[in-house]
Design a protein that fits this description.
90 residues; alpha+beta; 2 strands
Length: 90
């Protein structure tokens, strides 16, 4: 099993479309356009992305974020310690 395969969704998640978000997302994907999904807690953003990952047969890794996160929290950073400089993964 490849690394990507372990993050693939194998069972179709339940998602009820409320408009034309599915074809819009598919078009953005085909055109390699980035998409930002925004809305209040509990409105179905994560479920929609999970559904689209399944539909497009793409792996999905979720990261819980908050307003205090920085890019370094995700990517990593160099830290100083008693032995000098070391890399800390995000």
């Amino acid at each position: 099993m490849s690394t990507a395969d372990q993050f693939r969704i194998t069972n179709e998640p339940y998602y009820q479309a409320t408009g034309n978000e599915i074809p819009l997302y598919e078009t953005a994907y085909e055109c390699r356009l980035p998409v930002m999904v925004k809305g209040p807690t509990g409105c179905g953003k994560s479920r929609f992305i999970e559904y689209m990952a399944w539909k497009l047969k793409k792996p999905l890794i979720t990261v819980a974020c908050n307003e205090d996160m920085t890019a370094a929290d995700l990517v990593g950073r160099f830290l100083l310690d008693e032995n000098g400089t070391r890399w800390q993964d995000g």
